[in-house]
Amino acid sequence: MKMSKVKTLLICLVLLLSMACSEKNISYGSKVEQVSIARVDSMPDMPGSYKMLDWEAKAKAFDSFVFDWNNKSEVGSMIWLDDNRRNIDQPTFGLYTAVKDVRQGKNANNGEFHESLNSLAALLGAGLVGIDKTNQDGYNYVKMVQNYFNKDNGWNIVMNNTTPEVGMLGGGYGRDWWYDVFPNALYYAVCDVFPDVDGAEQIQRSIAEQFVKADSVLAGNYDYSYFDYARMRGMVNHIPLQQDAAGGHAYVLLCAYNKFSDPRYLAHAKSATEALLSQKESRFYEILLPLGVYAAAYLNATEGTNYDVQKLLDWTFDGCKNPEGRNGWGIIVGKWGDYEVNGLQGSIIDGGGYAFLMNSIKPAWPFVSMVKYEPQYAKAVGKWMLNNANACRLFFPMEIDDEHQWDPEMKSITNDNISYEGLRRVDDYGKVSLKGKTPVALGDGPKWAKGNPPASMFSVYSSSPMGIFGAIIKETNVEGILQLNCNATDFYAERHYPVYLYYNPHKESKSVKYSAKGIVDLFDIISKEYVAKNVSSDGTFEMPAGDARIIVELPAGTRLTTDNNKVVADGKYTIAYK
Predict the structure, then answer these.
(1) Is-above-0.90 flag for pTM?
(2) Which of 216, 248, 279, 405 has the smallest set of CB atoms within 10 Å of its CB?
(3) CB–CB of 225/177 below 8 Å?
């Protein structure tokens, strides 16, 4: 009897050892070779003056400060109620675009001048860091922003204002294409973070149908300053042509396809992507081209297309170089004085360079999630994110020396939550004390309207998307190695398992700590190998010097198989596409 038990145990042990050995010999494919982005190669592997803000905490503090209806600080309440009931029979709310902006508030312009680019980004940022904006202080803010769906004017898309009556007071409304397209991408993102809000699906359907019609009319020719979505006509005015609007169309229609499964939306997402790629050179401005990068990468992985993602990335980072477009707009590289500004987005040439916080944060949304589908860009994106997020702190008045900001005497009114709008290489207002200083944190607020005070350089709209960084960026135990959440902004896509991008800027390998709620296995889709197994609260994995990993967190024991160069978990979920 005892011998029988011993024999059984020996057989089991042999089987387990055999399975372990065979598992070690399983090949899940070859390592994904990394592809450079030339402009990122010009950035340092590790920023010389490194400091990473706690972006999640900052986003939460911003929400608490800006959505305080009874803000007793010197800045006063940044939010007000708009009961004009445009487009939908309900009250909405307004947020100041900039501190003390004279165009805004409940007593200016009938209380109707407020911008969806600000309000939607604020809701998105808050939702991404876990704040429920459908039920806060008695308000469903996600329902209230539906008033930006412009049905009264016949456009039937989400626009930057609620009505043409205030459309000429500030940022574009019905005349500047990116201003008309991007709010719809924001709205789709907000609806993914806050699903099942009454009336939202009807608006999302209308947006998708309007974009399908527009792409059909445009038929590959996006050579327009804007598009009239009521008359379905491309229009040209004094604003440079914005061919990268095709990237915005592609992204929104891809999200619509993943939500509604309508094959027309997929067909036009492809059509718009092809229109974007048909350009002879970069027409990059603001955010629509990066959204197009994501669409192309996603379609390559999931639909078998072969779109040139490298070209689109180069167009973004190198920027537009044609005077007929937004000449000089791209990703900034280098040092201004003693400050590293690598990775920021804005004008590379205006006054020697002019970067913006909003523009620098927003590309993280498509680019970090994009590496799941095009993992060959993991190292480049990881390096860019490290430099970019490090430099983004310079927009905040408490994070840059007083002698390098325009209004240090007023910085306390921001509560360290509201940034300057921009960072210029040199001051363009002619302030004597700033002569010879570089860079200078400032903003365009005083130029927007007569009577706007210097405090309007402090930019609410620039700070409102901070939650994008807050949801994506987490520091690890190793300085400079960030854990970047690839799922946080991968809206409407399959997100069965946590996925994180890591980049090691150091010249030696590092042991990175990893904590999980359960017992998990860590699989790297770049090296196509497990880097740790049976990890719980105190696991580690090795990060090779100067390299990147994309780690998928799998429940311990998850079975992996390969299928046409794809790695599949449990026979149904693709976790690696190359």
Answers:
(1) yes
(2) 216
(3) yes
